[in-house]
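Private note to self, pasted from the team thread so I don't lose it. Backbone tokens:
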């Protein structure tokens, strides 16, 4: 199902035609769907390759960004991250940049794959700390590296206020939307972040964290790669069990203001996801609802 009004249709025939035109040596390899997110559709190609195709023209910028920066970041990070092996160019049939990456074996982080959640949370925090300490290599918060989640909360307030209203209609009977909005406004009342800009993954949710032998193995999907304040980077810990969340907080020794802003970002992504994808992407809406339930439960204990 299409998630966006301007979505570009993709199927196996199209993917093979792109490969035939640009990498004919791969065109005959086995091809199978390998998942789809809000911005990209993926196909596994052969045993060790992954084709990544943006859903919309606007997402093509993320592909080019990954091609440019992932090799540089990989040399400075100890965790496994995607390795681009082909920069696909636009065609008449698919007028957006696309890519082929090296396949990474692993399972999504979940209750049936993670051996110890406290260890997982600490390991994820170590990855985040390492990424945030990488030199900016001359890059700045501009153009493709200026995603909204690396900025301050205030510019999003009007948009998110509308999402709260939508959620009162759709999930208001099961979630305390008024209290979630209070938490959002408490973060807005804090001083703006003032630390240095850092590299940000942008979306460290469980589906982008691969597990092998019970532990964190790789971080994937750098489509949200940007430079900015780190607060929003921590927001996805509410997608993890409380043991992982506590270990993450302890490992990074986050202050209360950073944690409060991170929680506000988690609320913003949750309510906006429900608002935008309510009729088109029920699996993602379920993720957002679970995140908001975790925030409410966590807030009741602090």
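Design output:
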């Amino acid at each position: 199902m299409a998630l966006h009004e301007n979505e570009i249709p993709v199927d196996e025939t199209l993917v093979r035609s792109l490969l035939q035109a640009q990498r004919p040596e791969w065109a005959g390899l086995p091809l199978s769907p390998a998942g789809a997110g809000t911005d990209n559709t993926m196909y596994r190609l052969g045993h060790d390759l992954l084709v990544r195709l943006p859903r919309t023209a606007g997402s093509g910028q993320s592909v080019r960004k990954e091609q440019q920066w992932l090799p540089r970041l990989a040399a400075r990070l100890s965790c496994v991250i995607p390795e681009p092996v082909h920069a696909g160019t636009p065609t008449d049939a698919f007028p957006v940049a696309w890519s082929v990456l090296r396949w990474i074996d692993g399972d999504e982080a979940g209750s049936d794959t993670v051996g110890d959640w406290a260890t997982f949370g600490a390991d994820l925090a170590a990855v985040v700390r390492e990424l945030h300490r990488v030199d900016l290599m001359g890059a700045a918060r501009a153009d493709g590296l200026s995603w909204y989640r690396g900025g301050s909360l205030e510019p999003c307030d009007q948009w998110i206020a509308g999402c709260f209203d939508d959620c009162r209609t759709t999930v208001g009977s099961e979630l305390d939307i008024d209290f979630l909005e209070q938490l959002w406004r408490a973060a807005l009342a804090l001083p703006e972040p003032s630390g240095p800009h850092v590299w940000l993954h942008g979306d460290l949710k469980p589906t982008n964290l691969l597990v092998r032998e019970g532990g964190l193995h790789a971080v994937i999907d750098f489509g949200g790669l940007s430079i900015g304040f780190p607060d929003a980077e921590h927001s996805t810990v509410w997608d993890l069990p409380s043991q992982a969340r506590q270990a993450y907080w302890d490992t990074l020794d986050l202050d209360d203001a950073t944690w409060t802003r991170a929680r506000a970002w988690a609320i913003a992504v949750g309510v906006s996801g429900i608002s935008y994808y309510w009729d088109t992407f029920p699996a993602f809406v379920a993720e957002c609802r679970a995140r908001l339930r975790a925030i409410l439960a966590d807030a009741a204990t602090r």
